[in-house]
């Protein structure tokens, strides 16, 4: 077909496919979304709804499909893909925002773009621009980083009791502290935001562990900036609670984290972290993925080489056949565990 329509038609086809229309920024806040004109791979992104006829894909944040703004009232054709996106856990969307996903059902959505690796477009919190340099770190980086470590554990949290997971993690960390683990705790839950703001980057870098405790339990692949930025990117060993260990193993550098599920009690985990604090050789083992990356690390690098809108753009430009997701409710809610919801 591309050759039949001639060179001008080919040009228009590629141009049309490479535009991504963001129907509305997350929660209506432009500060929470991509900038106008943001480029991902060969694609450009816009909020300008008058360009909907040009768009290869229209991206709908879960908060942004209003009853009086249904896009089919404006434009849609069979070559256009409607994409559902969320970076929040189903637990949060269901209970904190009390949102139904039914408005996305009935064949409205073609693809899902979330942090879940089993969706159509993998959109992790650790996007490629951050992951690629982190996965290139070497022994020299490791030596200089470990030399700065003098404190044990850090936790920053402001969601104290909004969700079941919020309460469970708060209780778990309280028990860690009661068992003798020094945890420096900051954020809204501890009413010391001003003290937190005064801390320098050197202070933050001096911790060996970050408590990467999510606000949801056993939500598929739900690993946020608490794991990636506060832990891996900032050179700390993440101590994980929330996602299943098998999910973390699939998505994280091998041997890079400690999972609470491996310990009979918070007291046992506290004892192990105190042991690692006194044993530099054992602690260093959690950075083996930096010193001696193996085949598993090659898989991880490939997984994060292209993410989010880059992957969406690649899919669009590959001229795929439509893939209708009949029910976002089934994908986002009904496929999750009871603990997650």
From TrEMBL:
Q: How does it sit in the membrane?
A: Single-pass type II membrane protein; Single-pass membrane protein
Any one GO CC term of this protein is: Golgi cisterna membrane
This protein is called what? Fucosyltransferase
- Entry's EC annotation: 2.4.1.-
Give the main location. Golgi
Specify the pathway: Protein modification; protein glycosylation
Report the sequence similarity comment from the record.
Belongs to the glycosyltransferase 10 family.
Write down the PANTHER family for this protein, in alphabetical order. Answer: ALPHA- 1,3 -FUCOSYLTRANSFERASE, ALPHA-(1,3)-FUCOSYLTRANSFERASE FUT-1
The UniProt record lists the Fucosyltransferase C-terminal domain at 147-328
Among the GO molecular function terms of this UniProt record, one is: alpha-(1->3)-fucosyltransferase activity
């Amino acid at each position: 077909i591309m050759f039949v329509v001639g060179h001008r038609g080919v040009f228009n086809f590629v141009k049309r496919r490479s535009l991504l229309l963001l129907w509305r920024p997350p929660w209506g806040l432009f500060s929470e979304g991509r900038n106008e004109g943001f480029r991902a791979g060969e694609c450009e992104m816009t909020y300008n709804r008058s360009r909907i006829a040009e768009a290869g894909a229209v991206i709908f944040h879960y908060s942004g499909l209003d009853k009086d703004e249904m896009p089919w009232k404006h434009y849609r054709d069979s070559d256009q893909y409607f994409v559902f996106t969320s970076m929040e856990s189903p637990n949060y969307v269901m209970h904190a925002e009390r949102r139904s996903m039914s408005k996305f059902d009935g064949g409205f959505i073609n693809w899902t773009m979330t942090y879940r690796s089993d969706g159509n477009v993998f959109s992790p919190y650790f996007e490629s621009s951050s992951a690629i340099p982190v996965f290139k770190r070497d022994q020299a980086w490791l030596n200089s980083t470990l030399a700065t470590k003098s404190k044990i554990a850090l936790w920053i949290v402001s969601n104290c009791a909004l969700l079941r997971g919020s309460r469970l993690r708060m209780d778990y960390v309280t028990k860690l502290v009661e068992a003798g683990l020094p945890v420096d705790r900051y954020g809204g839950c501890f009413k010391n935001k001003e003290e937190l703001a005064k801390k320098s980057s050197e202070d933050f870098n001096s911790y060996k562990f970050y408590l990467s405790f999510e606000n949801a339990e056993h939500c598929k692949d739900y690993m946020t900036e608490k794991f990636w930025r506060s832990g891996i990117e900032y050179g700390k060993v993440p101590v994980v609670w929330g996602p299943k260990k098998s999910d973390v193993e699939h998505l994280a550098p091998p041997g890079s984290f400690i999972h609470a599920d491996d310990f009979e009690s918070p007291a046992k985990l506290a004892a192990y972290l105190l042991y690692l604090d006194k044993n530099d050789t054992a602690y260093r083992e959690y950075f083996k993925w930096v010193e001696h990356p193996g085949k598993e690390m090659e898989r991880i690098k490939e997984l994060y080489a292209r993410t989010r809108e880059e992957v969406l753009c690649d899919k669009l430009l590959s001229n795929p056949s439509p893939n209708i997701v009949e029910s976002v409710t089934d994908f986002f809610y009904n496929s999750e565990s009871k603990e997650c919801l």
